[in-house]
Amino acid sequence: MTSLKTYVITRVLLTIPMIFILLTLVFFVMRVLPGNPVIAMVGMKASQRYIKQLEHELRLDKPLWEQYVDYLNRLLHGDLGRSMIWGRRPVINEIMDHFPATLELTVWGFIFSVLLGLATGVVAGVKEGGKMDFAMRVYSIVVYSLFIPWFGMVLQLIFGVWLHALPVGGRINPLLTPKHITGIYVLDSMLTWNLPALSSSIRHLMLPSLTLGIVLSGIYTRLVRSSLIEVLGQDFIRACKSRGLPERSILFKHGLKNALIPILTMMGLQFALLLAGAVLTETTFSWPGIGTFLMERIEYRDFTTVQGTVVFYAIFVALISLIVDLIYAYIDPRVRY
Amino acid sequence: MKRSGISKGVLIVIVAIIIVIIAAVVLSYKQPSKQTTPTTTKPTTTPSNATQQAQKKYADVIVIGTTDKVSDLDPANAYDFFTWEVFYNTMEAPLGYIPGTTKLEKKLITNYEVSNEGKVYILHLRKDLKFADGTPCTAKDLKWSIERVARIQGDPSWFVLDFMEDVKVLDTYTLEIDLKKPVSFYPAVLAVPTYAPIPSSKYPPDKISSDNTAGGVGPYKIVKFVRDQELILETNPYYYGASPKTKTVVIKFYKDATALRLALQSGEIDVAWRTLNPSDIISLKKNSNYKVWEGAGSYIRYIVFNTKMPPLDNRLVRQALAAALDRQSIVQKVFLGTVEPLYSLVPKGMWSHKDSFKDKYGASPDLELAKKLLKKAGYSENHKLRITLWYTPSHYGSTEADVASLIKEAWEKTGLVEVTVKSAEWSTYLELTRKGQLPVTLYGWYPDYLDPDDYLYPFLHTGANRWLGNPFSNNTVDELLDKAQIETSQTKRAQLYEKVQDILADQAWIVPIFQGKLYAVSKRSVGGIVLDPMMLLRYYLIYKQVSG
C-alpha cells in the first residue's frame, strides 16, 4: 500500500514540471509568432492611437520577461487572467462555456471507439487467419486513415440530408436547452428529467460521436486482436482447453480479461488523442467545443486565452493519464516505482 | 476473487453503455424528424382586418443559420456586420434605412432640424419609445448612450468622437447634437447602432458589457444568447411599431459554409444566411425546394500596392499591373458569377460611382498596354519585374488562394512579370501590412455608413489611410475629399468624388477587383427577405407560411 502511495505522489509531482514546461513553451511560442491580438481584433480600421492604448491596457507594451513573471505570478494565485479580445471575459469562464461540450463529445466518442474496437478486435482475434480476420484488419486500416471532415460529411449527407433522421450540426435544439447544471446537456437533461432535451441532445450527439468513435476504433481493433492472439496462445489457455472449459468462458473469462491490460494503457493515451481529433469533429459538426475555440483564439493571438486553455488541457490530460496509471497499478501489482 | 470482481464490473459497465445507446437510438427515432420545433400555429398574431380574408398562417419560429459570429453585444464596442445586424433588429438608432433602398428613414425620431450651417442637429424623439423591459426611453437616455460610447472609446467610438462636440438635452423628447464641423453625411452616421439608446439601468456606464442581452428599442428583444451556439430573439411587446410576423427568431451558428448548407438541406434551418460557398449557391438555385434571394452587396475587394517599396513606387509599374488584371476570370472561375467586376472604389449602384479604371484601362485585360508601360519602366523578357503578392487564407474565405493565383496568372501573361504568391494568417497579415512590409496585398472593405465618403476618405486621405501600410499622400485628393465632406449639394459632391476616382485610376495606388453580391437561401415557404446594400437581414420582415 505504501508503495502505491509513493507511486501516486511521484506521479502527481511529475505533472507539475510538465505543465510548467508546456506553459513556458506556449507563452514564448505565441509571442514569437508574428501578429498581435489587438490588431487582429480591431481589424484594419482602428487608429494607431487606439491600438497603442489597448496594448497598454493589456500590458503588451511591457518587456517580455515582465509579462512572463506577471503571468506566472497570477497563475500561482489560480488566476488564468482575462481574454484579450471580444469583451475580455475571464479565461476560466470561456473554458467553462466550451469545455463541457468537448467533454460530452469525447466521452461518447471514446465509448463508441472502445466498443467498436473491442467487438471487431475480438472477432478478428478469434478467427485469426480467417476471412473475418482479414475483413476486420482491412476495417481497422480503412477507418484509421479516414479523414474526419470527409467522413463526417458523408454521415451528414446520409443521415441528415437524405434520411432526415439526425441533425447535422449544433448540440441541441436551441429552444430545448436544459437548465445549466454541469453544461453537459445529456447529464443536465437527465438531472432535470427533461425528456425532449435529452432526446434532442442525444440525437445531436449521434453523428459527431459516431464519426469520432469509428475513426479512433481502428487502433483498438489492431491492439485487441494482437493482444488476444498472444494471450490465447499462452499455456494457461491451453490448460483451460484441456480441462474442457467451454469455449466462451475461455475467451471472455480468461482470454479477453488478460488481453485488456495493454488496452487500458492505450485508452489513457487515446483520450488525449481524442481531444485532438475533437477539433476536426467540432468543426465539421459546428460543435461549440473547446477545440475550435482554441483554434480560433490562436488565429487571433489571444495570448491569455490560449495559455489558459493549454494549461487547462494539460491538467486534464495529466489527470486522465494519472487515473489510468492508477487503475493500471491497482490491477497489475508489478507496476510500481 | 478480486479479479473476477473487476471483470464483472467492466461487463456491467459495457452492458449499461449498450443499453444507453440502444435507448438513445430508440428515443431518437421516436422524435419526428423535423427539427424546427413543432410550431403550434395558434393564431397569436391577432389577424388584422386587411389580412383576414387571406387567412394566412405564419410559423411562430424561424431558424436562421449563419457562419458569422457575434463580437460584443454592446453598441459601444461592436463594429462588425453580424453584430450590427442583431442591433438593427433589437436596438434602433435615430435614423435607419428603408428596406431595399439606400434612403434614410426616421426611426426613433419624428423629425430633425439642421442649423448653424450644418453644425447643429436637433432631434425630436417619438413620445412612445420604450425599452424592452417597458421603461420609457427619452432624450436623456439617448444622451447617456452617446456619451457612454465616447467614454468607453471602443472600436466604433470614432462615429461619435470624430464628429461630435457636445450633446445636450433640450427637453424630455428633444436632443441637440453640436458637431465640430459641418459633415454632409452626418444623417447616415445617425443610422449606425453606435447611436442607439440603451437603458442606463442595464449597462455599466464606463465598461464594455459584451454578453448583455438587455437591448434597446427595437422590434425584437434578446431572450437568450449562448456564444457560438445560438441567439434567440422574441418580439418586443413594448415596441412602438408594428409587431413582426414571426414571434421567435432563432439564430444558429455554424463553423463553415459546408455545415451551413447541410443544415439547410437537412431541414434544421429555414434560412441559410452568410456565407454559403459560390458553388453551393449555384447548385441550390437549381433545386426547386429552395428559394435563392439575391441582392446588391456593398462590400468591395481590391489590391493595395505599397507605394513606398520599389518597384511599386513607380507609377508606370502600377498602371501596367492595373491594365493586365483580369477581373472577368476571377469573377467567373472563382466565384462562378456570384460577384461583379469592379472598376472603382465606390461600388456600383451608389451615387457618384464612376468606372474610372474601365475608362482608363478597358473592361478586359489590355496586355499590349501593360507591356508598353513595363518596357517604358525599363523591364524586358530578360529583366523581368519581380513582385510578391500576399494574401490571407483565414479571413476572406476559402476562395482567396484562387483569387491570388488568378491575379498572378493574369500578370504573368504579359511575359514581363514574375509573381511569387505568399500567404499569412490574418493577424500576421494585418500586422505586416501596417508595418509597411508587404509589397502587394489583397484586402476587402465593408462600409460603415452608406456614403461615397466611406469608400474614398479612409483609403486616399493623408493620415486616414495609415492602416494600408503605404501612407501615400496627394494634396489634390486631400483637398477634393475635404471639400466634399462639408459640401451639402449631392450633385456637387458627386463631381468632386468623380474627380478623385479618376485620379486614383491614373495613380493606381489601389486597384479594385470586384464587388460582392448578397445571397440568402431559404425554404420555399419563407418570405420577406430583403437584401440591399445595408447587407443585413431584417428579421422583422421575415415570415414562414404554414399550410393548413
Q: Concise description?
A:
With 337 residues, chain A is mostly helical.
Explain how this protein is built.
The complex is a heterodimer of chains A (337) and B (548). Chain A has 337 residues and is mostly helical. Chain A has a domain at 91-299: MetI-like fold (Orthogonal Bundle). Chain A contains 13 helices and no strands. In chain A, helix 1 packs antiparallel against helix 13, helix 5 (91-126) packs parallel to helix 13 and helix 8 packs across helix 9. Chain A is globular. The mean pLDDT of chain A is 84. Chain B is an alpha+beta fold. In chain B, 32% of the residues lie in helices and 21% in strands. In chain B, helix 15 runs antiparallel to helix 16 and helix 16 packs antiparallel against helix 17 (490-507). The longest helix of chain B has 29 residues, at 2-30. Chain B starts with a helix and ends with a strand. At the A-B interface, helix 2, helix 3, helix 5, helix 7 and helix 9 of A face helix 1, strand 10, helix 7 and helix 14 of B.
